Amino acid sequence: MASFGRDYWMNTIPFSPSVAPSATRIAPRRTDLPTDAAIYSVENFEPRPPPELVCSVCLGVYRDPVECPCRHVFCSDCIHGWLVNGTGLGAGSCPVCRQRSSPSQLMPVVPIVNNMIARLKVRCPNHATGCNARVAMEHLNHHIESCPHRRSPCPDCGVQMRASELSLHQRERCPKRQVRCDRGCGLSLSAERLSDHNCIQEMRNYIASLDRQIEQSQQQVQRLQRQVDELTATLLTGPAHVFSGIWHNHRL
């Protein structure tokens, strides 16, 4: 059975029969282990992990392992989902021995279990793009950050590529990179538009765009002028003392 059973723990960890071991310990979760569930597939480990470290629900290496009162161990997400959403005869009980259990009774495993998982060798997730590294689980996050084979999206065109190739791609290959026309107009446009670029038409479009901006600016000036005229008329036709006060304040 791919789990830590009662006999395993009783033979390796001494405890008082009157007190469950899990009730007397709190093992903090290791934050240096990967969180991506796909990494924990047994196919990614070389050599293959021992069955004592494999969850009998998902059949992957334990991820954030916890144990039931019966001392069978499972991934935290697996056993929570089983106990909360399970149906049929096994609902609300251990998937291995069927002893009744609830999420509130689950406890962290002893630290040695997480330490054993941390030392397992796993293939780099970028093995499909050429990385042949086998890294201890506790060092995998650091390796992924610096792996030259990791894939990153181009922020301009979205194409996935090796992180080491991103700079060259943005500089010389990205279809969205900005280039300057060398046919005479000197306009800056994306590389994908360069092959269909017509200097004369682009200049006409550019001039038309400037004309629209000028027209919008003129309309704005006219609106402001009308507002000034209306305010001036109001001041001139208003009470003399109001006009004098405004003029006095303006001069000050």
From TrEMBL:
A zinc finger (TRAF-type) spans 143-194. GO terms for biological process: regulation of canonical NF-kappaB signal transduction. This is E3 ubiquitin-protein ligase NRDP1. Keywords: Coiled coil, Metal-binding, Zinc, Zinc-finger. Residues 55-98 form the RING-type domain. It comes from the Eukaryota. It comes from Rhipicephalus appendiculatus (Brown ear tick). Residues 200-234 form a coiled coil. InterPro entries: Znf-RING_euk, Znf_RING, Znf_RING/FYVE/PHD, Znf_RING_CS, Znf_TRAF. Residues 143-194 form the TRAF-type domain. Pfam families: zf-RING_UBOX. GO terms for molecular function: zinc ion binding.
